[in-house]
Amino acid sequence: MSTARSGRDTADVTLDSIRLGEVTMDDVTIHPDTLVRQAQVARDHANPQLAENLLRAAELTLIPDDEVLAMYEALRPGRSTTDELRALSVSLSERGAPRTAALIDEAAAAYARRGIAKQG
Fold first, then answer.
1. Structural domain count, the chain
2. pTM, whole model, 2 decimals?
3. For residue 114, is it within any domain?
4. Which of 9, 37, 111, 120 is most enclosed, with most CB atoms within 10 A?
């Protein structure tokens, strides 16, 4: 059984249920557990990079969409200082997203090395 973020069985999300207005956004949004299971499949098939990406995606399902979009914006070269990126990393870690936090830390270090962090 595949479950949406709402807890609803995805098999219950049909065109009829959509037409009747019985479907919410959480009914068509992936559940973090599904991503964790997909990560295990990736790991079992010798694809550790994909597994890590899926685990980060599972973490991000718990962060509001507008904040995820703001993170993407913050990660664009020249948009954030290394201190701002490190503060974002701490925030993510405190919110239960340690893998994503580690990725942001790596980006902050790389941006500093390459001189593409915002100066300020």
1. 1
2. 0.82
3. yes
4. 111
